[in-house]
Here is the input.
Amino acid sequence: MIPVLLRGLCDDAALFPPGNAPLPTALADHARYRDSDFAALVGPLIFPISRLAELAAREPGPLTVVCTAPEGPGTVTQALDRAAAIDGLTLAGLEIAVPAQLSAAEFFAATELLATRITSLDVYIEIPRDDRRPAFLERLAGSPYAAKFRTGGMVAEAYPDERELALALRSAVTAGIPFKATAGLHHAIRNTDPITGFEQHGFLNLLLATHLAGAGADTGALEAVLANRAGPAVAAELAALSDTEASAVRTAFRSFGTCSIGDPLTELVDLHLLPAALRPVSESSAS
Here is the structure.
């Protein structure tokens, strides 16, 4: 029921802004998603390493998480130990941020010290949005690690414009670096938030741009796709991809974090990329 293009696309980031779900709610909702007809759409629960002790106290039972390390590789060893001590918890991956002013050489030297402990995990390195970006991407090419691109946040400056994102995306695809996106992808299609006025990227725009980058499109073409607000047209181009093409897109663009699984699910149904039977049922109308 979930096509190749969309399987595992939506990481459950309910604990993060702007959702900020309480932990009991996030755990209950995630368990419900994993037992739903749209389970194949949903990836792991994204979990901050600073809250692992809180998770341990709740004895969550079988649960797969990807942990974020916002303070960099120096915090990872302790997090791995804490995660290993929680019964039923499977740590599937890490998202490691780069501390300010740390060079690529310094960062990867620190990461190398963790190599034997993280070799079985999916590891994403959050690429800095400054002049260090090329060096980080160069080091990621051919490595066992993937990239993480920040696509938004709580302030306008957290959103890269079309050109910045197009350049980053094209660089990663050309170099064969898988990537994921995080923050700001609140809707399927490029939009202007009516409350904040922020220009927000659409996750379907990113999927289509990834496909075109793989086909050799230049940066200007990718900018145009990222700026496209015509939802039905973007969805139609994606729906026309073969399974082989869709698999290639998802090999490159692994997933994106969303604090609401219901929102992307609803929009994918509305754009006819998922069947209407998967439309979420609101709590008020649930039997």
